[in-house]
Design goal:
The complex is a heterodimer of chains A (407) and B (264).
Chain A lengths: L1 H14 L1 H39 L3 E6 L3 E2 L2 E2 L10 H8 L4 E16 L2 E10 L2 H5 L4 E4 L4 H6 L3 E4 L1 H7 L10 E4 L2 E9 L14 E5 H8 L10 E6 L5 H15 L10 E5 H44 L1 H9 L4 H38 L7 H27 L3 H6 L2
Parallel strand pairs in A: 5-10, 7-9
Antiparallel strand pairs in A: 1-11, 1-12, 2-3, 4-5, 4-8, 4-11, 6-9, 7-10, 8-9
Chain B lengths: L14 E14 L2 E14 L3 E5 L6 H8 L7 E6 L2 E2 L5 H10 L1 E4 L11 H10 L5 H14 L15 H13 L5 E5 L7 H16 L3 E5 L3 H4 L4 E6 L2 E7 L26
Parallel strand pairs in B: 3-8, 3-9, 6-7, 7-8
Antiparallel strand pairs in B: 1-2, 1-4, 4-5, 9-10
Helix pairs in contact in B: 3-4, 3-5, 4-5, 5-6
Classes of the chains: A alpha+beta (407), B alpha/beta (264).
């Protein structure tokens, strides 16, 4: 029965090819644009997620509070309230994976006849773990380097490109930072830009103790400008923030009515808002494309209504020879679904093709997920049912006597 | 006038059609219009009946009721012993599919389908498999002498041939009854004769044929003639035996105002 009906629906579609093709075109454009727009939107989401993952996930940065001298307040990070010992205490807290005290600034680097200005980060090896930064070659400095403040450095890709000749191996070479010689013991894997568009590879990493003694100087031993903290998971972040705050307040002996003498910044928040922006953009694109799907559906309804009117007599004959109302309903519904699903398949092919083409000519990131294909397909079938139902019911409700008399 | 008969009362055993007090009133803007005013009629198995009457006499309404395309306002209609007057839509559809074969004035073949598929169409609604549908359709086309046109389309054959295909379609589910509504209305007289000969042949094979027509020479092919006027049967009589060779008989038998089945 179903096979016979499918055959008939196919036949009916083929009987007026031009009209069927034009009706289908609505679905083709609708599904095609949904697939293409979702591919572009998800591509953007993917690109942002990539960038965020290079920054390290679930990170907090704790910055020392401000100083105030004769009413002039400095910015955050210039107070002397944080200590390396604070970092060690935070590391003991629950759900904290990595903690690294750090100090950074821009310094002039010299190698041979070349010089270059880059961000110098003085920190502990945990910094690399927290930011999931790996080495391309060499090794990371260790505890003994921190203790004895050895002059060793890890170089980022941009620094290497600007200080060394192409092909020259930086490992073992000596560069100067503020006239202090440093031995290059490792090179960092590239990370690309961060969300602000700053080049993360334009960085040199040295032991915290060395940076304090030789590069930045420090107001008193054991203080540090900032501490980077990684929580075990995104879910654990709020509780980590709370326990870190409580711990630091206790360690700094702050009274209940005193303000924090440090700031906690959530790096994930910035990342989240960027991700949220692309997610909204992707949804918006999908929503706009869905409107064309809706228009396609209305086109199907329109043509099915015409078809029902044209075939009134046929409906009468079918009823007379024994078709029940639901047989007529099923027949027209099936035809509508067939048009929309066939249009959907063509639209899928065109949408995916369009996405690949976009990728080829604009180097935009394109992500075609099985989910978006399924959604497009499901929506097309639903459109067929939804917009096919009214004409089909109209056909089924025809009085067979009137229908037979229809000229 | 009749009230619907109580349960247990039924039609004569050999009656294909048995109606009692059949009434149909249409509700129009101008008020109720009685198209049938209480009709009693019995048609036995193997009969060949012509239903006649001018337009507006109620014969089309009667035909629609006999064909289970409509339900009466009052009265009872027993089709092969079952009272269909109060059946639901789907049951009526099944009856039309299995028990009645329709032949229309305008042939009503579906233009997009091959003749074989047209003939097989009722079997689709009987849920028979494809192979059986094909085989039966071929048999029926052979019966009306058109098996060589099985894959042809309606537009490619003549009107007379189309009507033969329509008859094949009507026969395919071995119905108890063939209902033909002005089957020769769109045909020339020569072709009409051929079609009427086919009905005669089917009747000779034992199939009950009910024919609606307003043409006397077509009605004369039937063995019994029932006349309608103003929603009532005004005559019901056997067709006088025709002098075939002379072809002179145009008048029907004298009108007998009585009703009831004639002795057959």
């Amino acid at each position: 029965m179903l096979r016979a009906m499918l055959g008939e629906a196919w036949h009916a579609m083929g009987s007026n090819k031009m009209r069927t093709a034009l009706t289908m075109l609505g679905m083709v454009i609708g599904v095609g644009s949904v697939v293409l727009m979702m591919a572009i939107g998800q591509g953007a989401q993917y690109a942002v997620a990539q960038t965020i993952s290079t920054m390290g996930s679930n990170l907090y940065v704790i910055i020392a509070g401000t100083t105030q001298a004769s009413g002039v307040r400095s910015g955050g990070g210039f107070g002397f309230t944080l200590r390396v010992a604070d970092a060690e205490a935070i590391a003991e807290l629950e759900d904290v994976t990595y903690v690294a005290p750090m100090q950074q600034g821009t310094q002039q680097l010299v190698y041979g006849s070349k010089n270059w200005s880059a961000t110098v980060v003085g920190t502990t090896p945990e910094y690399l773990d927290a930011r999931s930064w790996t080495l391309a070659s060499g090794y990371v400095f260790g505890e003994s380097d921190l203790r004895s403040a050895t002059r060793v450095a890890l170089l980022g890709k941009t620094v290497i490109e600007n200080l060394f000749e192409p092909g020259e191996a930086p490992l073992g070479k000596t560069i100067r930072v503020r006239n202090t010689p440093f031995t290059v013991i490792g090179t960092l894997n590239p990370k690309g830009q961060n969300l602000d568009g700053r080049d993360q590879d334009d960085t040199i990493i040295i032991p915290l103790s060395t940076s304090q003694r030789k590069v930045f100087g420090v107001p008193f031993a054991g203080s540090v400008r900032s501490i980077i903290v990684q929580a075990a998971s995104a879910e654990a972040m709020p509780s980590v923030e709370k326990s870190v705050t409580a711990l630091l307040r206790q360690r700094h002996r702050l009274r209940d009515d005193a303000e924090n003498d440090f700031y906690i910044r959530n790096l994930a928040a910035a990342a989240d808002s960027a991700a949220e922006t692309t997610r909204v953009m992707s949804m918006l694109l999908g929503a706009i494309a869905s409107v064309s799907l809706l228009v396609g559906g209305i086109g199907i309804m329109n043509i099915m209504l015409v078809s029902v009117t044209e075939r009134t007599r046929e409906i009468g004959v079918r009823r007379a020879i024994g078709a029940r109302q639901k047989d007529i309903l099923a027949q027209f519904l099936l035809e509508a679904i067939m048009i929309s699903v066939t249009g959907c398949l063509i639209g899928l092919v065109l949408g995916v093709g369009g996405a690949l083409l976009t990728n080829a000519i604009t180097d935009m990131v394109i992500v075609i997920s099985g989910g978006s294909v399924l959604v497009a397909f499901g929506v097309a079938a639903a459109v067929g049912v939804f917009f096919g139902f009214y004409p089909a019911r109209k056909a089924a409700a025809l009085d067979p006597i009137e229908a037979l008399r229809y000229q | 006038m009749y009230e619907p008969s109580p349960v247990g009362r039924s039609a004569p055993a050999d009656a294909v059609i048995h109606v009692e007090g059949l009434t149909k009133t249409y509700v129009t803007a101008a008020g109720p219009f009685p198209a049938l005013k209480g009709v009693d009629l019995s048609i036995s198995h193997g009969e060949y009946v012509a239903i006649m009457g001018p337009s507006g006499s109620g014969k089309s309404t009667f035909m629609n009721l006999l064909g289970c395309l409509d339900t009466p306002t009052a009265g009872d209609y027993y089709l092969v012993g079952r009272n269909v007057a109060h059946m639901a839509n789907d049951e009526l559809a099944t009856l039309r599919n299995r028990t009645i074969g329709f032949v229309f004035q305008g042939f009503n073949l579906l233009p997009r389908m091959s003749l074989q598929d047209n003939v097989a169409l009722p079997l689709v609604y009987s849920h028979l498999d494809r192979e059986t549908r094909r085989r039966r359709a071929r048999e029926m086309l052979a019966k009306v002498g058109l098996d060589s046109y099985a894959d042809s389309f309606p537009a490619r054959i003549s009107g007379g041939q189309q009507q033969r295909v329509a008859i094949a379609r009507a026969l395919i589910n071995s119905p108890s009854l063939i209902l033909a509504d002005e089957p020769t209305g769109n045909l020339d007289s020569h072709t009409s004769e051929e079609i009427m000969a086919l009905f005669g042949q089917l009747n000779d094979e034992g199939i009950t044929v009910v024919l609606v027509t307003h043409e006397h020479d077509i009605a004369d092919h039937a063995k019994r003639q029932v006349r309608f006027l103003d929603g009532l049967i005004v005559s019901d009589a056997l067709t006088p035996v025709r002098a075939e060779a002379a072809g002179s008989t145009t008048a029907t038998a004298p009108v007998t105002a009585g009703q009831g089945a004639p002795a057959c």
